[in-house]
Amino acid sequence: MWVHAGAVSVTLTTETGEVIPVRLVDNHDGTYRVEFEATSVGQYNTAVTFAGQLTPASPYKITVQQPTLAVDASKVRITSLPESKTHSPLSTAACCY
After folding, report:
1. How would residue 20 be classed by pLDDT, with cut points 50, 70 and 90?
2. Structural domains counted in the chain
3. What's phi and psi for 74, nearest 5 deg?
């Protein structure tokens, strides 16, 4: 699903091309949060555009794996990766508490 918030837009697809609905949230501090529910394990492609152009390193790859331990999904948080690692402040990574 393509979501647009001002000049930023996000499209999320599975390896098979299935378009996944996303929610793009403006944090009102120059950053955005992308929320989605994974429909299956595997690799997802996240295309992020700004002012109609792909951001550096986009599309980003997100790998969803079957958990090896019981995981409480309410404890999963998404945080920014260091800019030096991704060359873009728009990318995200998951971490568990």
Report:
1. very high
2. 1
3. -70, -15
